[in-house]
Amino acid sequence: MERRRLYEGALRGVARRFGFREAATPMFEEAELFVLRSGENILNELYSFKDKGGRDMALRPEMTAPAIRMFVNGMSNDPKPIKLFYFGQCFRYERPQSGRYREFFQFGAEIIGSAAPETDAEAIAAAAAMIRELGLKEYRIRIGHIGVLRQAISDAGIPPESQARVLQLLDKKRLDEAREAMAAAGADPDAAEAAVRLACTVGGREVLDAVGGGAREYLGAVLDVLDAMGVGGVEVDLGVVRGLDYYTGMVFEAEAPALGAEKQICGGGSYSLSELFGGEKVFSTGFAIGFDRILLALEREGAPFSPAGIDAYVVCASDDAKAKAFEIVAALRAGGASADVDTMGRKMAKALRHADAVRARFAVIVGPKELEEGSATVRDMATGEQSLVKIGDLAAAVRRAG
Question: Is the pLDDT of residue 162 over 90?
């Protein structure tokens, strides 16, 4: 938990520096909220149940829909854009595997109320800054435009009811299955193969030459803003579609090669959901980071982590000093130092070994000699050096040295 809290704090810090404010939503919602957002197929992944009022409820499988529901219910009149971030547990009934759990943590952010390249670039820049802040060394960010492949498969003659499945297969690079699905849907063979080639087109800004019209101009404008913000190494991948119907334009993903085949750690894009939940149509851009997955990637890269210890561990050198030891530990804590005290009646040698085991920076030793002088012996656990410090000065001395 110490490691997780450290990384969680890093993500929160970046979000605040980007001007996002934290939001929290219930862990369960009406199941319809997620069906409206993701379609009927999501029911197979939900932990759903009926409450005592007979309502169909579900543990949240993601947090975008709850955030937009919250916006529609209570924030729709607030000045735009609204920048929210959130962190919490989500639940999906799917096959557990490395880095994928039925209960998992998601860190995400939404920029609500603006449909512009600048907004999309801001979201990508925030996600990139968060990944960098965590210390991940190897990662890729790929951006695309949902309209490119949608237009391609539509031009191939694939009917609307079959398009979502084909897009999902192309997004996952299950190309043979995509070809079979397009053939079964009556697609023109040459146009279908052109869509497959488009889904495999990845590179730098030059990739935009393969994109027509508005999508090329829009992605170019996003890249311009990212360049201005110093966000480098972004690839253009025309096969990124995210596989969900509600995305409206730019989509992006981040992946960590250290995770192998299941390497996605972040995904997002521009969308419109508010009208599904009873509000006016408002365009937004958001992303979510798979917290458990990115921690696993850091672990596989060998990211260093040293658990923090305490500033001081107070040791009694004699029974006469017990009361004074508790007085000292209370004073240390009141002075802002993290401190603990021996409550097991250990002898000096064992107490010092315990101080080392709990990673105390200092041992504060109190015995007859120290009592006479109104002082305590402060022992640096790393070097073994000792000094006599007045009891009133202990907290300041420990904090300063630490």
Answer: no
User: Residue 97's pLDDT is what?
Assistant: 77
Residue 167 pLDDT level (bands cut at 50, 70, 90): confident
Residue in the block written with tokens 């107490």: 351
Alpha helices in 135-268 (DSSP H): 146-155, 160-171, 175-184, 189-199, 213-228
Q: Which of 263, 393, 381, 212 is nearest to 312 (CA)?
A: 381
pTM score:
0.88
Q: Does residue 341 surpass a pLDDT of 80?
A: yes
Query: What is the reported pLDDT for 133?
Result: 96
Structural domain boundaries in the chain: 2-300, 312-401
Name the fold adopted by 2-300.
BirA Bifunctional Protein; domain 2 (3.30.930)
Higher pLDDT, 27 or 147: 27
Amino acid identity at 387 = S
Annotate 32-101 with DSSP letters as a single string. Answer: HHHHHHH-GGGGGG--EEE-TT--EEEE-S-SHHHHHHHHHHHTTTSPSSEEEEEEEEEE--S--BTTB-
Which has the closest alpha carbon to 82: 72, 92, 90?
72
Distance from C-alpha of 361 to C-alpha of 400, rounded to nearest angstrom: 12
How confident is the model over 31-77, as pLDDT tens digits? 888 887 777 777 888 999 999 999 999 999 999 999 999 999 999 99
pLDDT of residue 243 exceeding 60, the answer is no
Distance CA 162, CA 151 (A): 14
> pLDDT per residue over 78-133, tens digit each?
999 999 999 999 999 988 777 788 999 999 999 999 889 999 999 999 999 999 99
Q: How far apart are CA 260 and CA 98, in angstroms?
A: 10
Handedness of CA 26, 128, 281, 38 (dihedral sign): negative
CA distance 270 to 69: 17
CATH 3.30.1050.10 fits 312-401, yes or no: no
Map tokens 């001081």 to a residue.
312
